[in-house]
Amino acid sequence: MKMLLRSRTAEKWVPMELRPFLKEEELENLLAKSPDLLPAEEGQQQIVFFRQQVTLGQNAADLVGVDAQGGITIIECKLHSNPESRREVVGQILEYSAQLCGMEFEEFSAIMKPKSDDNGTLIDAVQGKAEPDWSEADFRSGVQKALADGQFRQVIAISGVNDELKGIVEYVNTHGRFQLEILELHTLCHGDDEMLTLETYAPDVKPPATLTFKGEMGKLVGDVPKRILKLLREEAEATGGSIREGDPAQIYLTIKFWGIAGLSAKAEQGALRLGFCATDAVGKALKDQATELFHNTFPGVDFRFWVTKDSELEEATRLVGRMRVFYENLHRLKQGQQVVDQGTSSAKS
């Protein structure tokens, strides 16, 4: 691509020369100083704050950003000449996403602390850039939801995209449960004048059929699985929780007790399969305690339960009662309170 430049008073067009990025830090610094350079597509919010070199596990993500609603964006920067700008960069950005998934807001806020202000916090940084009607409570809720669901915007910023990377991203976006984006950047200059070109590449994917409670109910065979799934929804709603549906990226319903998303429900071959995920339930910090509590409550169970058309209704109902008590104890664990035995729990039985 050739770019020409002239002033309004000049007759002659002059070519602008490509000025290649020499270090990946240049890409990183450019985006960190100007978050608005990352295009906000339909349904996306503009990033208001980027933190550079965010330590996640044994490595560090180049950029992790947040928008005013709590959405999270991860960016990995690569030069076109770097051999890692092909398949390795995809593995890196997925690794960082896995490290963030299940993290609690307090831990995320700590690793996102602004480097330029010893006393500043993530909240301070966002509030300084957000609109006057910005809500801290909504922001916290948005961040926590993104962390719990593992839903992040994942962007590879590169100084020249290659066909191999495009092919990998297209395959991942078509066959995976998430979407990657490529942001290609070039700088051109002439004298003191400088131009930046931006081009995004994010192949559209056709989402799978929307998951619904009604749809899963229709796949169940027999009265018992249907009554148990309905009872689980009632018990979840009684604690201020819910069953999440309608997210095309999900392959199962997510049941929340006390706002804790750790139980999945899915109709498989007419039966109801329930699965527990300790990390999603209480975050990585309390994963071991949650796992121990699960094993104490459900001895010999490998985190999965099956309710079939041949299951005894009374036994399956008792399972729901134990699950309700178990989640009350998880709620206590998150609040720093003492867990209680099933027999002494305040939850109704």
Quick structural overview:
With 349 residues, the chain is α+β, with helices and mostly antiparallel strands.
Topology:
Elements lengths: L3 E2 L8 E2 L1 E3 L4 H10 L13 E10 L2 E9 L4 E7 L8 H14 L4 H7 L10 H8 L6 H14 L3 E6 L4 H13 L4 E11 L2 E9 L11 H7 L3 H16 L3 E3 L8 E5 L2 E9 L2 E6 L1 H5 L4 H11 L6 E4 L5 H22 L15
Parallel strand pairs: 6-7, 7-8
Antiparallel strand pairs: 1-2, 3-8, 4-5, 5-6, 8-9, 10-11, 11-12, 12-13, 13-14
Descriptive report:
This protein has 349 residues and is α+β, with helices and mostly antiparallel strands. It has 2 domains: 4-201, no CATH class; 213-343. Helices cover 36% and strands 25% of the residues. The chain has 11 helices and 14 strands. The chain has helices spanning 24-33, 87-100, 105-111, 122-129, 136-149, 163-175, 213-219, 223-238, 278-282, 287-297, 313-334; strands spanning 4-5, 14-15, 17-19, 47-56, 59-67, 72-78, 153-158, 180-190, 193-201, 242-244, 253-257, 260-268, 271-276, 304-307. Strands 3, 4, 5, 6, 7, 8 and 9 form a 7-stranded mixed sheet that branches. A 5-stranded antiparallel sheet has the order 10-11-12-13-14. α8 (223-238) packs parallel to α11 (313-334) and α10 (287-297) packs antiparallel against α11. The longest helix is centred in the last third of the chain and has 22 residues, at 313-334. It is elongated, with a radius of gyration of 25 Å. It starts with a strand and ends in a 15-residue tail after the last helix. Residues 343-349 have low confidence and may be disordered.
What value does the average pLDDT take? Answer: 86
The Cα radius of gyration reads: 25 Å
Approximately how much beta-strand content do the residues carry? 15-25%
Count of individual beta strands: 14
Unreliable parts: 343-349
The structural class is alpha+beta
Number of separate domains? 2
DSSP helix fraction = 25-40%
Largest sheet: 7 strands, mixed
Shape: elongated
**Topology as H/E string?**
EEEHEEEHHHHEHEEHHEEEEHHEH
- Distance linking N and C termini: 70 Å
Total helices: the number is: 11
